[in-house]
# Entry
Amino acid sequence: MLDLWQRPRRLRATPNVRRLVRETTLSSDHFIYPMFVADGIEDPREIPSMPGQYRHTVSSLVDRAGEALEAGVPAVLLFGVVPADRKDAVGTIGAADDGIVAQAVRALRAAHPDLVVMTDVCLCEYTDHGHCGHIEGGAILNDPSTASLADQALAHARAGAHWVAPSDMMDGRVGVIRARLDAEGFSDVALMAYSAKYASAFYGPFRDAADSTPTFGDRSTYQMDPANLREAMREVELDIAEGADVVMVKPALAYLDVIGAVRTATDLPVAAYNVSGEYSMVHAAAANGWVDGDRIAAEILLAMVRAGADILITYHAVDVARWLRSR
Ligand code: PBG
# Structure
């Protein structure tokens, strides 16, 4: 029989009642805006599979980062794009002090003193084979790769990056990078580790944007199997032991259970990366008039917060920040 005393709808009666009992809120305070900066282009170019996102020049990057800051987004995460003829087997250009990311970091720090400037640290954008590490006979080598990653992180730190974020998934790289930064006087630079990063089809549009598709094989000997949750706990534990300041789960939308489990396993901030494929799917459906793009993006991001994420890395950052303000 229906118990007439149980009336949960009382707490949904008006907008202000709903405000009072709301358990989670979405705020642009926690957004990081990922951006691409490209070497060797004269003008920004829209990324075909990621409408509204660009391969930027240093100057258009500075302008767009200013818009993000203005909209209420405190941080950007930079990815470098270089022409094929600047790539080599070990991604040397990624660690150059005058590399495109280092140039961009210096320009952003000069133009926007309050902006938190973060860099992705990986080799796949800079290697001619597109893998995230050195290779030998078709295998991806671990320890030589972590040394190159530390070189790159150091170049970003020298340029003025506040946070560096290794996304390669080599074993031990958090510890190697931390030790290198500390030895060179950059103990203030924070480390956001892509800890539970899965070998995912959701990265498709990003690889177009960054021109980082592997020329052979795939990334499943270093990125995680989407079937595994317990293994994510191990990766998180190792990254924390090696000195990570923030741990990340990536992708996010199809991995809310992982975000929830990581949240209960650590008191460190947990970041969720709402990746390129998640962004492009929302855009494609919105462009067809099938869904309301801003509302659905905000709902997806709110779900990540509810699952336990403190920080949201999202290409929707500027649009959703503006949308939240307009309400
Ligand atoms: C580089 C890197 C990737 C992403 C972030 N850093 C691609 C990959 O691992 O293939 C994906 C980001 C996105 O899809 O938005 N290793």
